[in-house]
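Supplementary Methods, section 5.1.

A reviewer requested that the exact input to the structure prediction be made available. We therefore reproduce it here, unchanged from the version used in the analyses.
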Amino acid sequence: MAYSSTTSSVEKYPYPWEVNVLDFVPDKLSDAKCYPQWKQLMVDFIESQGLLGFVDGSTTEAASKRVSQAASSNSVSWRRSDNLVRGWILTTLDKDTRLQVLRYTTARGVWTRLVDMFDRAKNRFQLDEETEKKKRRYLPLRIAAIEGDWDTTSKIIESEPDIVRAAIMPYSDTALSLAVKSSRRNHFVEKILKKMSPEDAGLADQWGRTALHRAAGVGNVEAAKLLAS
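The structure derived from this sequence is encoded token-by-token as follows.
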């Protein structure tokens, strides 16, 4: 009876150790280009072994410990199967990729890191989502800077002083570098400079252009003088 109980608990999670993952996923993952095919083959393989929960997060060690009977054995069984799945994943990675994920001790950890590294669709969605959040957050200041509306801007700065150095446009433009593009907004430039440190005023966009470069580029001499003073 003791043997039967031990076997049952150990086999709570599948452990198909004799299966060779390379028979199902023959090509090593090395870059984003080969990631979609690798992922599909890997998901199909892991799912066929009844272990997909170890990478999608639906089978966790914490859940195995919540089972009142033979909780310790369940945890051992979970860890054994998780190590197996983690080993499968590592086996199908090239050397450089493997070195980047070795520090993750669970199959889920390795899998999630690979998604972050190679899943272009996910990363693009996250980037788009972050960009949209930033657009919504900075829209009032962007409109105020374009219109030279200092009253609105001063209220925004009063509630969030650090916003004077924030990149409020896709190419890292600040409110200042946006305002200097037109001499009609020089009253705005003069006032916002009083809210900024020299370092803030000298912030550059992703191409290394500062507000002074922008002012000079459009021939806004007055703004350039304000920035240089």
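The two ends are 89 Å apart (CA to CA). These observations are discussed further in the main text.
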